[in-house]
Amino acid sequence: MNARLPHFRRRSILMLILLLGAFTISNVSYAQQHAVKGKVTTGDDPMGLPGVNVLLKGTAIGAVTDIDGNYLINVPDTGGILVFSMIGFESIEEEIGNRSEINPVMREDIAGLEEVVVVGYGTQVRRNITGSISSADLSGSNDDVTVTEAMVGVPGVQFNETGRPGQVGNILIRGQNSLSGSNSPLIVLDGIIFGGNLNDINPRDVKSMEILKDASSTAIYGSRAANGVILITSKSGTTETPSISLNTYTGVSEWASELKLLSPDRYLQRRLDWRAQSGLAADPNSIENYISSTEAENYRNGNSIDPWREISQQGRSSAIDLNISGRTKAMNYFVSASVSDDKGLIHNDNQKRNTFRVNITSTIKPWLQIGTNTMFSHRDLSGVSASVRDAYRMSPLGTMYYDDGSPTQFPVPDEQAAGNPMRTSLLSDNEEIGENLFSNFFAQIDAPFIEGLSYRVNFSPSYQWSHEYNFVHQDKNVSFNNTSASKLNERQYNWVLENILTYTKSIGEDHNFDLTLLLGRNHVEAETTLASGEQFNVDVLGFNNLGLGEIQRISSSAYAVEMVSYMARLNYQFKNRYLLTLTARKDGSSVFSVNNKYATFPSGSLAWIVTDEGFMSNLDFLDMLKLRASYGAVGNQAIEPYQSLTLSSTQRYVFGDGGSSSLGVVTSTLGNDDLTWETTKTANFAMDFEFFQRRIAGTIEYYNSNTKNLLVRRNIPIMNGYTSILTNVGEVNNRGIELSLSTDNIRKERFNWSTDFTFSHNKNEIVHLFKTDLNGDGREDDNIANSWFIGKPINSYYDYAFDGIYQQGDEDIPAGSQAGFVRVKDLNGDGVITPGDRTVVGSGNIPKYQFGLRNNFTYNNFSLSIFINAMQGWIAPFNLINPLVPGRSLNQLDAGWWTSDNQSNTRPSLVYSNPLQTNWYMSRDFVRLRDVTFSYDFNRAMLDKLKLSGLKIYVTGKNLATLTDWLGTDPENGGSYTSEQGSDNLYPMPKTFLVGLNVSF
Which of 337, 654, 769, 788 has the fewest C-beta atoms lying within 10 Å of its C-beta? Predict the structure, then answer.
């Protein structure tokens, strides 16, 4: 990192010089000026209109009208055009000429208020929307923002970032509905269900994103929409002349937070303290006798290891995007290509991505349009990353490399519970490639013989290919053949055929309606082939000749899914203020049983625009008040193909010593002919409001959803011949409140300040499971084995309640414990700690509260955006506090430990054996300075000199600071190694600094 920082700083200084130069030029260019004043009024009211922006076109020179509608602005003697603009009013342009006073009259812009929003299978003006839809618009974002990052701060949406290149993270909309099925939202790209990775999508291609949250808005997607829907719309041409846009950024990353490991000195002190607590000799002068010979030699020679530095690489991010767009009477086009290269913070944790997009719409006849939206992505995730888990465990006094630079197998040969974290990465050749060709071909006919009637057909064939090839070379320092190779090939093909009929009609001035009908088919097929080999005598061909392996294995699988859908939606407006939406969708899927192939999902919603009523006309401060209510049902397939059937597996048997093998077929899974869809029914109530000429606007919503017929694999008595069956049981409830608030705080001549605030609260609980009461206590039994508890969140933790640490002199230390061991609460008060004292100590995975706060400042051509987000009210297991076998050559988290001289009440001793097998838990609450962006837009005069239509430079910092008590790498991803997880998830979150440039011609 140090080698690159000077280069990064030089580039930053150069950018700053350009900024200052441009600012100087923009101010010098208008030295000769004269004043123009006036008063802005409305057509219906001669009183002045405050808060109107007055701008000299093509410059940063501007003013804002005062409370009486008056303004004063200094403009160059060369004249120009004044632009008068305000949200909710039509903009006016006035030629200055020799005039020193201009008094424009502004009129309300109805069309401007009626923003067009993408909904399922069409668009609607926002004022007519009756369901719950939030927007995350990327059109004005810097190109370093990913598709998933744009959803942070959207009310009701939870996105947990991993911080790793190529990893999407976890997305939840309004909580978790399913116990064991998928809880991921449905992704719809350009109107077609998208089955790829969100990282396949180039964010600079995205025009807008809408998140559908309640049943009224999601029911149009029926059986796939129980977890919410994310609608992504790509860009199209907007200018009659061709527009070329070049966007690029580059930056570096460092660890935002580092898990604190024992230093060599602390490592040795731990060994001494452990020996003392174990009743062994603990003489500091004899420390070399208490550690392994390898550690002792390195200790004598002053050699030590910082594991995090050994497995780290310089984090870097760079991308370049080029797009060409335009529109004519006969064609609308948008063509783009992008290349990005991201290097994570851990060695070989990388992603390279290339994308290409073509969006074309051709008008063949006034009533006929045809076109395509096609995207191709190529993602390269090659490379085996270093093992974070082994780095955590590795002794700081071990040896990672031999004298010739080759890696050791174990840093401490006597300790094989901690391997060399770099060994597999360095010995492996890995190629991991994913490709996605996603397309939609469409034709739309606007019937010339029936006004308002249109027919659209979508055909979307899409292909996904991926492969992962891996070869482990021979380690020359071991005596056995460690080579192995594998080739995994996966292919998925699916197509969607949709017939959409839309009819729009107005009857008189009071009645407006539109009807949408859909008939669709969906086919999905996939296949997987895995071949592997071990013990290669020749490794020069790597994974390209598996036949050279002494031991060979091969396996393959395939599946197909068929779906058919019918949908009808009616939107009705009475007097343009009483709104009604009715939707029904019927889906059939081959994944379900013969008795329940089809299911119907209806919904309805109402809205009332209260401010359009006559009795509201005297409330001048209230610009808009809208009330909404909806109720409906959506479904969740939630299972893999063929799970409703009785399945068989194969098993190879050998008869007798040296006998031949035979292949047998054994029934392995019991089917269920009555298996049906998970169904979520949601009620939603909302209020949209705007005050003080839309300087304050927002939405508050309350929702309550119940998910029934949960798809769960339930254990059954073994005498049936099977151990479990997939069935429908139980009910889960999610309810919560969401708030979004936007304020226009300051409007001045050259300075503006606006704020966006969002808040979400979700309460998740299991309503019931199997409706059994085996112990006869009058309440339904919990499912302790799966940690499912009636009235508690799905992800709950059942354990003993922590009550400090037993100290020397305590008289109530039970048998099996001693001073320095964990004390737990005797909840039933019987004086003895038994399993009956366990309780639900908390919940995780879903925070109770989320908020986001973004402040936007502009001064002349400079802009500053500061975004803070937070998640509160959740915990997670954090067993790294437990000592990791301190008598062996294993490192651990340096969080302190109990000693007789330092009797901690929060940390155990080094001989703590955890007799009750209880876990440690920590709060994952955090507040994060997530994004700070400073940018400069060059003014019109400079752009004219450079022959450009737009030029912007910016500097961004991400994850700059986090306030949290979490001791792991990051509270958002919850990274901590536990014996239950048994995998690497200690990856750090990056702190990133970027410099970007946007140019348009």
Answer: 654
Which of 60-64, 128-132, 354-358 bottoms out in mean pLDDT, i.e. has the lowest? 60-64
Read off φ and ψ for residue 616, nearest 5 degrees.
Answer: -100, 0
Two tokens, residue 275: 């020996």
Residue type, 625: L
DSSP state of 111: H
CA distance 723 to 716: 5
Q: Is the pLDDT of residue 977 over 60?
A: no
DSSP code at position 208: E
Mean pLDDT for all residues in the chain = 88
| Distance separating alpha carbons of residues 637 and 701, to the nearest angstrom | 27
The DSSP code for 224 is: G
Q: What does the block give as tokens for 256?
A: 């935002």
Q: What gap in Å lies between CA 318 and CA 334, rounded to an integer?
A: 23
Q: What is the DSSP letter of 214?
A: S
Alpha-helical (H) ranges within 771-843 are none
pLDDT over 50 (residue 26): no
Question: What is the band of 792 on the pLDDT scale with cuts at 50, 70, 90?
Answer: very high
H/E run at residue 271: helix 264-277
Pick left, alpha or beta for residue 853 (phi over 0 → left; psi -120 to 50 → alpha; otherwise beta): beta
> How much is the average pLDDT of 322-341?
94
3-state secondary structure of 591: coil
d(CA 193, CA 229) in angstroms, rounded, equals: 10
**pLDDT tens, position by position, 751-779:** 999 999 999 999 999 999 988 888 888 89
Residue type, 143: D
Q: How far is CA 840 from the centre of its chain?
A: 28
Beta bridge partners of 591: none
For residue 802, how many other CB atoms are within 10 A of its CB? 16
Distance CA 296, CA 972 (A): 39
Residue type at 910 in one-letter notation: L
Residue 612 to residue 626: CA distance in whole angstroms? 9
Q: Name the amino acid, one letter, at 722.
A: Y
What the block records as the tokens of 417 is 């519970």
Identity of the amino acid at 377: S
CB–CB of 972/160 below 8 Å?
A: yes
Torsional sign, CA 935, 940, 941, 947:
positive
- Taking the C-alpha atoms of residue 111 and residue 963, their distance in angstroms, rounded to an integer, is 44
**Predicted confidence band of residue 3 (pLDDT cuts 50, 70, 90):** very low
**β-strands 678-691, 622-636 pairing:** antiparallel
The Cβ of residue 741 has, within 10 Å, a number of other Cβ atoms equal to 17
Residue 672 CB contacts under 8 Å (≥ 6 apart), including other chains? 593, 644, 725, 726, 727
pLDDT confidence of 499, banded at 50, 70, 90? very high
Comparing CA positions, the residue from 134, 160, 135 lying closest to residue 149 is: 160
Q: How far is CA 859 from CA 24, 25, 73, in A?
A: 14, 16, 16
CB atoms within 10 A of CB 782: 18
User: What residues contact residue 678 under an 8 Å CB cut-off, 6+ apart?
Assistant: 177, 178, 181, 226, 635, 636, 637, 638, 707, 708, 709, 710, 711, 728
- Give the model confidence (pLDDT) of 546-564 as tens digits: 999 999 999 999 999 999 9
The percent of residues in the chain predicted with pLDDT above 70, rounded, is 93
The rounded Cα 466 to chain-centroid distance in angstroms is 22
Residue 137 CB partners (closer than 8 Å, separation 6+): 150, 207, 208, 209
589 SS3 class: strand
For strands 81-86 and 89-95, give the pairing: antiparallel
Six token digits for residue 446:
């606007």
SS3 annotation, 595-638: CCCEEEEEEEEEEEEHHHCHHHCCCCCEEEEEEEEEEEEEEECC
Q: How far apart are CA 522 and CA 535, in angstroms?
A: 44
Block residue for tokens 């958002």: 972
